[in-house]
Amino acid sequence: MLCFERQQQILDILKQRRSATVEFLSKRLYVSAPTIRRDLAQMEEEGMILRVRGGAALLEGTNQDAPLLVRTSKNREKKLHIANIAQRYITDSCTVFLDSSSTVTVLAEKLDRFKNLSIVTNGTATAQLLNETTSAKIFSCGGVIQNKSSIVGPFAVQMVNSFYADVLFLSCCGLSLNCGSTEASEDSAAVKKAMFYNAKKKIMLCDSTKLGLEFFCKVCAVSQLDAIITDEKPNDEFLHNAGIPILF
After folding, report:
1. How many other CB atoms are there within 10 angstroms of residue 188's CB atom?
2. Matching SMART domains, A to Z (predicted)?
3. Mean pLDDT computed over 145-174
4. For residue 18, how many other CB atoms are within 10 A of its CB?
5. CB 3.0 to 4.6 Å from 221: which of 90, 130, 180, 209, for a disulfide?
């Protein structure tokens, strides 16, 4: 197969799946992993795709959430820093809501050391990760799968409303003093709102790149949160006017 033909097939796969690993592409196209990596490097240089850790994703507009593989890889060091701080809000035998965000998925990687957790999540990857790495009792929402990573819709909201959690960990598309926590999708916002109103403590995990951004669908005001965890010190206006603890 010619290089051009192979790269066109890679594009076709990404249009169907939105993201794919090197291993998947290698098996699908019957070529070696190094060959795929060279193709991906060239395609990225030409602005055709976005390379992420372990694979690639299709470049898309900002009106939709990026695939989870992209979001988890992007700013991963920031997310790890946030997840390390967030663990102090978890104790053995507590009940937890986890949204489907990539930052919360990174936190889920670190929950194996806790015992007797009960966790409700609308994240498909989060539920799978928890099932493979923890002894937690996991409740996965039913509903419509969105963006290959989130479960949304009225059934998901109805299920969340059947529980009450000690603590909610959520992230956002944007967080500002003016609009609070906002999302690009009304379906994602609806599930997060249900978790928010059924949790005793609400902890926002928000890397610094999202501070000051505002999107269409509002989830909550900053003042309604119990704490914000980010990766670096916010600007003085945000720090002094948030009115809640900010950990970084």
Report:
1. 24
2. DeoRC, HTH_DEOR
3. 94
4. 19
5. 180
Q: Are 104 and 149 in contact (CB under 8 A)?
A: no
CA 237/CA 61 separation, integer angstroms: 31
Question: What single DSSP character describes residue 89?
Answer: G
Average pLDDT score over the chain: 89
Q: Summarize the confidence of residues 99-127 as an average pLDDT.
A: 95
pLDDT at position 214 over 50: yes
User: Which amino acid is it at 86?
Assistant: A
Q: Which pLDDT does position 50 carry in this prediction?
A: 83
Q: And the tokens for 41?
A: 């490097």
Exposed, middle or buried, 73 (CB in 10 Å: 0-12/13-18/19+)?
buried
Which residue, chain included where needed, has tokens 């299920």?
159
Domains and CATH numbers, the chain: 3-59 (1.10.10.10), 72-247 (3.40.50.1360)
